[in-house]
Input
Amino acid sequence: MILAPLRRAGLVATATLAALLGLATPAAAHGADAPDGTDYRAEVTATSPARPGLTARMVEAGARLELTNRTGRDVEVMGYSGEPYLRIGPGGVYENTRSPATYLNRTIAGDTQLPPEADPAAPPVWRRVADGPSARWHDQRTLWLESTPPQVSAGPTRQQRIRDWVVPLRAGDETIEVRGTLDWLPPPDAYPWWVAATLGFLVIGAAGLVPGCTAPGVRALRAVGALLALGGAATVAFTVGRMLDAGAEGVGGVLLGLLGAQVWTLLTGLGAIAAGGYALARRGAADFALALAGACLTLFAGLSNLAVLSRSVVPMAGPAVLARITVALVLATGAGAVAAGVLRLHAAARAASASGKIRTTSGKVLPPAPVSQQVP
Output
């Protein structure tokens, strides 16, 4: 039998989470084209000739090329047929609505259907799309979207150069080239990370077997709460690292990105931290909070980032191994909190049925429900 306080807490928590998910889903769609991981590493090697204030780099695990122009003069990015595609300068970022690249580069697959007005030979028609000095776009010249290259099929365990690439720019009468490389990196073995996550899940979940009304049970509750909060903090750190990899600059840029494309993952991490603190304080319905927050953490921060465990290039700033440690930690603490919370709730319900009293797993004893509210 589910106790009345837990039912009320569950209804409130479910309604709150549903409302947050409804608000977050549209914002999260903005980052839907960013990969969760890849084995192809694209890097910018040079801008030739170099010009002070003109910089280029790959962002979003190599899915987009970013060009920043602080030279004080307009710079044009040339499209796939040599036509003007983007114009970046003091007045902001403009795209040429006649360039086929404007439409092809909207998705990483480059499969957007071209409208009738797309004509590389036609005079440019410029449309302003951003205020700042930077533009980011999927450039098909920097990506590998075909089947596995023959040299990779012949030697998949060796790092290999796929090709060198060039994206041409134009500044007045001067031609500039952004040069880079595309390499194949052998994927890591995901098995050790799965073993680590599974062992962590089993150890944390075993805390739910300790009787909740005893001193060891109280300590187990606090331990699970602390570990869940750690998993929440790891989720927040992963989300910040993902925004930095996407090109966010400064505190304002990171916060704007977190409240946009990564808002649901951020809320999931913060919710796990709050639930962990709730358990540490031995509040009523702490076990339900652990199970619910752990389930959200597992689904929305762990399983949604599984590609990190088996891809060599990950969408997070810093070493790839740090991203794998983070995801394994999130999986272990989230799933472990679910198991521990469910086991403790089940034990509390059985104890209440046997004694006729309601004893919470934090050690508090509540009077039995009136006869009119008891379920025969």
